[in-house]
UniProtKB/TrEMBL annotation:
Protein's name in the database: Cysteine desulfurase
E.C. number: 2.8.1.7
Domain Aminotransferase class V: 24-410
Keywords, ordered alphabetically: Pyridoxal phosphate, Transferase
PANTHER family named in the record: CYSTEINE DESULFURASE, CYSTEINE DESULFURASE 1, CHLOROPLASTIC
Top EC category: transferase
Transmembrane segments annotated in the record for this chain: none
GO molecular function: cysteine desulfurase activity; pyridoxal phosphate binding
Catalytic activity: (sulfur carrier)-H + L-cysteine = (sulfur carrier)-SH + L-alanine
PROSITE patterns hit by this protein: AA_TRANSFER_CLASS_5
Length: 423
């Protein structure tokens, strides 16, 4: 039995009051709080072994490099990726947004003939298709929308069910023989709905296309095995999985990483450089890690990955499902509408809602005055809001540190919103 009260006690930021109330933090979909072990790992790195990785022969550089690569292995184990030397499948990025832009840029470079014959599997041209969905975060939509504009490819998308789920049953129609890239979210950041990605992946591979998964909202909440899921690439951020900001990860099947041309250029990613001929780039993952990496943050992210594995992701899922059941009662309040599935099935504890007659920012300020932190706005996902006939909403989202009492505190505050505004 996992003691989630003891886990909550590991988060020092939660031990405070906001506006005279104990802090209730329900905004983990935006960024998660950090346990003390992660905070300590980052500062300990700076205190003891701070040095450039993969560059120096001195002792500190060797220790820093070892810590950096051990962290890569820890993250790989969390998501079912390979980490053995020469077979690594985890690339360090500046975040999920950076990882998705890396892919879109690399695909664009392949379309220009970069990377040789092996890279042509990623090349796009007019008449080719890129497929996303209406549920996507802008960090998925915009890089691939821009890639389509640069290459002349056509952008297509999966529509949504009335409750906001990606219509995976349309895979045979949406994904065609002209499709080259499919990029969809594993869990939608607005609705909390888990996408039925299996039929989408099968169809993607049937037509020889590449499948890209936005795993930002799944890695911190679900048990993940990218090999078992058969995804080609996946991107996510450390700061949503109880790690530091400023770092993320890109998973890629090894043979695909080896074929993919680089997207950014500089030190530490080139094997041989000349003035009068093209450079010879290093093997992955170094090929995609130009410049100085956020080493301290990567080390701390590795600690976060091990910490999550220690809890057990199946335990995280079960704990947050209990809290989600309570949060879904928001839909029972007069004038409140849940944006997403009302049933606590195939979803995580992310619950967006609209309040009839009250602007989301006013709702957020009222709830903040009760010491409760939720998200306000379009959550970087405007198309899905338009699907619901809205421009913005409020969103509560859970983490391992939340309790049923946190959800009940939000429910109590929510019941006071419309009366406060005279409705």
């Amino acid at each position: 039995m996992v003691d989630f009260d003891a886990i909550r006690a590991q988060f020092p930021i939660l031990d405070q009051q906001v506006h005279g109330h104990p802090l209730v933090y329900l905004d983990s979909a935006a960024t998660s709080q950090k346990p003390q072990c992660v905070i300590d790992a980052e500062s300990e790195y700076y205190r003891t072994i701070n040095a450039g990785v993969h560059r120096g022969a001195h002792e500190l550089a060797a220790r820093a490099t070892e810590a950096f690569e051990q962290a890569r292995a820890k993250v790989a184990r969390l998501v079912g990726a390979d980490w053995q030397e020469g077979q690594e499948e985890i690339v360090v990025t500046g975040g999920a947004t950076a990882g998705l832009n890396l892919l879109a840029t690399a695909f664009g470079n392949a379309s220009l003939g970069r990377g040789g014959a092996a890279a042509q599997r990623f090349a796009l041209k007019p008449g080719d298709e890129i497929v996303v969905s209406k549920a996507e975060h802008h960090s998925v939509l915009l890089p691939f929308q821009e890639l389509a504009a640069r290459t002349g490819a056509t952008l297509k998308w999966f529509d949504l069910t009335p409750d906001g789920r990606v219509r995976a049953e349309d895979a045979g129609e949406v994904i065609t023989e002209r499709t080259k890239v499919v990029a969809v979210c594993h869990v939608a950041n607005v609705t909390g709905a888990i996408t039925d990605i299996a039929p989408i992946i099968r169809r993607t591979h049937e037509v020889g296309a590449v499948f890209v998964l936005d795993a930002c909202q799944s890695v911190p909440h679900l048990k993940i095995d990218f090999h078992a899921l058969d995804v080609d690439f996946a991107a996510w951020s450390a700061h949503k999985m109880y790690g530091p900001t400023g770092v993320g990860f890109l998973y890629g099947r090894r043979e695909l990483l080896e074929a993919l041309p680089p997207a950014s250029f500089g030190g530490s990613m080139v094997e041989l450089a000349w003035m009068d001929q093209p450079a010879q780039y290093m093997a992955p993952p170094e090929r995609f890690e130009a410049g100085t990496q956020p080493v301290a943050q990567v080390v701390a992210a590795g600690v976060a990955a091990d910490w999550l594995r220690g809890i057990g992701m199946e335990n995280v899922e079960a704990h947050e499902r209990t809290i989600a059941a309570e949060l879904l009662k928001l839909g029972d309040i007069d004038g409140f509408r849940i944006l997403g599935p009302r049933e606590n099935v195939d979803r995580i504890g992310t619950v967006a809602f609209d309040v009839d007659g009250v602007h989301p920012h006013d709702v957020g300020q009222y709830i903040d005055a009760q010491g409760i932190a939720i998200r306000v706005g379009h959550h970087c996902a405007q198309p899905v809001h338009r699907h619901f006939g809205l421009y913005a909403s409020n969103r509560a989202s859970t983490g391992v540190y939340n309790t049923v009492e946190d959800a009940q505190a939000l429910l109590e505050a929510a019941r006071g919103v419309r009366p406060f505004f005279g409705l």
